[in-house]
Amino acid sequence: MLQIKNLHVKLEEEDKQILKGVDLTVKAGEVHAIMGPNGSGKSTLSYVLSGRDGYEVTEGSATLDGEELLEMEPEERAAAGLFLAFQYPVEIPGVGNMTFLRTAVNAQRKARGQEEMSAGDFLKEVRAKAKTLKIDAEMLKRPVNVGFSGGEKKRNEILQMAMLEPKMCILDETDSGLDVDAMKLVSEGVNALRDAGRAFLVITHYQRLLDHIKPDVVHIMANGRIIKTGGPELALEVENNGYADLLAEVQ
Ligand code: ADP
Ligand code: MG
Ligand code: MG
């Protein structure tokens, strides 16, 4: 589903290489985790996949079901089925959460050549999905993320994800700033979306999220590269021993 080959990325403004040859293949139905020390390039990878400005791809490719993502506009990537949840969700004052969701869902349906969802159907679906994520009606009416707690923002992102039904979901540090209960809710939301036709890339600094979202494959990223790939046991190894041993192995 997602295939990243030899991806090299530098900052546009500075002569600083951040990703130095990332290779990664995620198949439909799989959950992959990327762990790694701070500054290793994890967020840069998710930003580049989302099409954020400020980064220059100097080599390599990233395809979603065979289509080159790196040549698409951000909204084309979303229409192709890519969804990214970020460490710091944006606040949108003046735009109601429900209106935002409906606009996003219908824009995506349009891009996929589908008809708009009727107001009634949308309302039914958003209410049902919000309920499972313990998002109350009040939160649906408020401006997007404005005044939301960290946990509420994360749950709101999972709601966006649930409504957009993407193929490939990338979550960057979704656990940071979450208390245990909020982390469980977010994990349950993600687990409920696990499906043979969908894949996840979960970027996390801590092993604890992976107790709730069980990954099939774990990658360790350091200094702009994936230095080791393994099963869930790799996350436990990091939890117990830190990154030092793994870093020493590759030097
Ligand atoms: P991680 O998410 O693994 O902590 P990042 O992708 O955020 O790592 O950062 C990787 C490296 O690139 C760090 O050294 C960071 O300081 C640098 N970096 C990323 N984006 C920028 C930027 N816009 N300006 C300057 N340095 C950046
Ligand atoms: Mg960081
Ligand atoms: Mg990061």
UniProtKB/TrEMBL annotation:
InterPro entries, per the entry: AAA+_ATPase (IPR003593), ABC_transporter-like_ATP-bd (IPR003439), ABC_transporter-like_CS (IPR017871), FeS-cluster_ATPase_SufC (IPR010230), P-loop_NTPase (IPR027417)
Cited PROSITE patterns: ABC_TRANSPORTER_1 (PS00211), ABC_TRANSPORTER_2 (PS50893)
Regions that span the bilayer: none
Keyword Zinc-finger: no
Domain ABC transporter residue range list: 2-248
Keyword Nucleotide-binding recorded: yes
Keywords from the UniProt entry: ATP-binding, Nucleotide-binding
Pfam families assigned to the protein according to its UniProt record, in alphabetical order: ABC_tran
Family: Belongs to the ABC transporter superfamily. Ycf16 family.
Protein's name according to its UniProt entry: Fe-S cluster assembly ATPase SufC
Protein species of origin: Paragemmobacter ruber
Lineage: Bacteria, Pseudomonadati, Pseudomonadota, Alphaproteobacteria, Rhodobacterales
